[in-house]
Write a structure and sequence with these properties.
Layout lengths: L2 H20 L29 E3 L7 E7 L9 E7 L8 H9 L6 H4 L1 E7 L2 E15 L15 E15 L5 E9 H6 L1 H9 L3
Antiparallel strand pairs: 1-2, 2-3, 3-7, 4-5, 5-6, 6-7
């Protein structure tokens, strides 16, 4: 063999040997990082058959939304929201109830009816109030800002039925039904059945 060709052949064999030595068995890929894990385990409940599930936001406290068919004399459907703030202070029961009452004219908190009971070892607090409901149509002014209050849509003859389910390890879960009085009252038993099915 020509000396030059022999030299090239040796170089090629050496390169192959080095390449073979540098190969190692395939290493397992690292496990994917867990992302979007909930802060607390979810709560489960049974949804009344006549309620229509709506798409809830992927982020934020709203975990489920439902539309309740309106009663014959009401003009609007009723919406039910399920909210969870995890284990933080935003899940304070009284603070959330005050916020709900503030959406009604007058001192709604003083005239609200309240009761409590237990479901599978979880304390449930139920609140109910009726009156003139105010729906803000624009962003609310920040606390302390000297701005006019937001434009509001006023709805007479509205009722709110809400519940806070206090769990020992999953934070407080809030169920809020608000809408025309007759529809909310007609859906009361279905709402209570949903709360009693919480687990």
């Amino acid at each position: 063999m020509h000396p030059r060709r022999a030299s090239l052949a040796r170089a090629a064999m050496l390169a192959l040997a080095v390449s073979a030595c540098s190969r190692t068995a395939a290493e397992p890929e690292p496990a994917p990082a867990v992302s979007g894990a909930p802060a607390v385990a979810p709560l489960a409940w049974d949804v009344p058959g006549s309620w229509a599930a709506l798409e809830a936001p992927r982020a934020g406290p709203r975990k489920a939304l439902y539309r309740v068919p309106r009663a014959a004399n009401d003009k609007d459907d009723v919406e039910v929201q399920v909210l969870s703030y995890g284990l933080g202070s935003k899940g304070d029961v009284e603070a959330n109830f005050r916020e709900w009452f503030a959406q009604f004219d007058g001192d709604a908190g003083a005239k609200a009816t309240r009761e409590s009971f237990e479901v599978r070892g979880m304390r449930v607090e139920l609140v109910e109030v009726a009156g003139t409901y105010k729906i803000p149509l624009g962003p609310r002014p920040q606390a302390g800002a000297r701005k006019r209050p937001p434009v509001e849509m006023v709805k007479d003859g509205y009722r709110l039925l809400g519940a806070a389910v206090r769990t020992p390890d999953r934070g407080n879960w809030f169920f809020r039904m608000v809408g025309p009085d007759e529809t909310v009252q007609s859906a009361r038993s279905a709402f209570l059945s949903l709360i009693e099915s919480a687990r």
